[in-house]
Amino acid sequence: MNYPSEAPESARLFERAGVVTPGGVNSPVRAFGAVGGTPRFMVSGKGAYLTDADGREYVDLVSSWGPLLHGHAHPAVIDAVTKAAAHGTSFGAPTVNEVALAEEIVARTAIDQVRLVSSGTEATMSAIRLARGYTGRSTVVKFAGCYHGHVDALLAAAGSGVATFATPETEGVTGAQTHDTVVIDYNDAEAVWELFEQRGDEIACVITEASPGNMGVVPPRDSFNQVLREATLKSGALLISDEVMTGFRVSRSGWWGLEAVDADLFTFGKVMGGGLPAAAFGGRADIMAKLSPGGPVYQAGTLSGNPIATAAGLANLQLATDEVYSRLDAVSTELQGMVSAALFGAGVPHRVQYAGNMFSVFFFDREDDVREVRNYDDSRTQSASKFAAFFQEMLARGVYLPPSGYETWFVSGALDDGAMSRISDALPYAAQAAAA
Ligand code: PLP
């Protein structure tokens, strides 16, 4: 299989989209900016495969950026969605499905209570508001390279030292909005202790990706999460573990199932929505009690706990048994080995990093550049051009990868022998393209 690089129908749709939508997409990474070429417009998905507007079929290693643990259009998820839709799309009133989904989430995790929202961004934004309301403090600590959605206060880049205020990372966010945000390097325990020594009594919360996947996969090392737990406990700040990506993906509960460091609040999304818009934040009962309507911290949503989204999420979670996670781990390990073997074979400097079944591949220009990627600065030494060459060749050979070297590859339980052999056939060509 070797599809032409032109994709006429996708190109036509992209042009049409560009007239009415900025950049032709509704989320920036979809525009293929990092890899070039025409973004593929998808028309259907089944199991491990996606089909685009030109009728080409791809093995999907994006899985809708994580939610599709069991592949596309799993019959149990589609059945749940269809049945829920037949009863009506939204009521703006409490429903049974949202109680059942909340019970399932609480049963799988370390939290007492959960509030449902519609996106991961809403979940982290609300968790931060709650942490500030609960502690009566203002400062939020985040880590460079960790992404928590497009919350104004979290679109912040590191200032010049640990004691400086963060600066906005995008136009449209004001200095006032990031004034109470401090950004430090990931995996830097010393910087955490130094910051808490200087400003511990101002800090409302530390928000961290439970195991980061938005600068490529960069797992916590040397008990970094435990350091965050100790520092926050000591100062009376809350720890927010953002499990929007890892939650219910890397284990029955998420990263917490692999490394049981207790946080005060957790955020979830992706898998718990089964491909529909559903997300959540939750934690200790005494903290959650501060939320409206019982408490003084306001939080709400017209479509929160939507009956179709919660039905999809519940079906997705009910399918996610321990056996499924074992299989996902095995598939992920096999894939990592296949990618590495092909890249070694072609002499392409690289490093594969994983966290549970999530993994990413860092390409480097020279063998001397290869390093353990511990933080955002390390991640930024990767070779964008080698990744782009590799990506395009995989696409041409029917494998759809995340279109950026800073993203995680997401496996699904639908990856069968046929899908794995398509990937295996494509890899030597893609490795050669990256070597050139
Ligand atoms: N937190 C993490 C760790 C994420 O990876 C993401 C999205 O990728 C978000 C929050 C934001 O979620 P959403 O895109 O649903 O707003």
Automatic annotation (TrEMBL):
HAMAP family, per database record: HemL_aminotrans_3 (MF_00375)
First-tier enzyme category under EC: isomerase
Xref: InterPro entries: 4pyrrol_synth_GluAld_NH2Trfase, Aminotrans_3, Aminotrans_3_PPA_site, PyrdxlP-dep_Trfase, PyrdxlP-dep_Trfase_major, PyrdxlP-dep_Trfase_small
Top-rank taxon: Bacteria
Pfam family membership, one: Aminotran_3
GO molecular function (one): pyridoxal phosphate binding
Name listed for the protein in its UniProt record: Glutamate-1-semialdehyde 2,1-aminomutase
Entry cofactors: pyridoxal 5'-phosphate
Keywords: Cytoplasm, Isomerase, Porphyrin biosynthesis, Pyridoxal phosphate
Organism of provenance: Antricoccus suffuscus
Family that this chain belongs to: Belongs to the class-III pyridoxal-phosphate-dependent aminotransferase family. HemL subfamily.
Assembly mode: Homodimer.
Gene3D superfamilies assigned: Aspartate Aminotransferase, domain 1, Type I PLP-dependent aspartate aminotransferase-like (Major domain)
GO annotation terms (biological process): protoporphyrinogen IX biosynthetic process
Catalysis: reaction(s): (S)-4-amino-5-oxopentanoate = 5-aminolevulinate
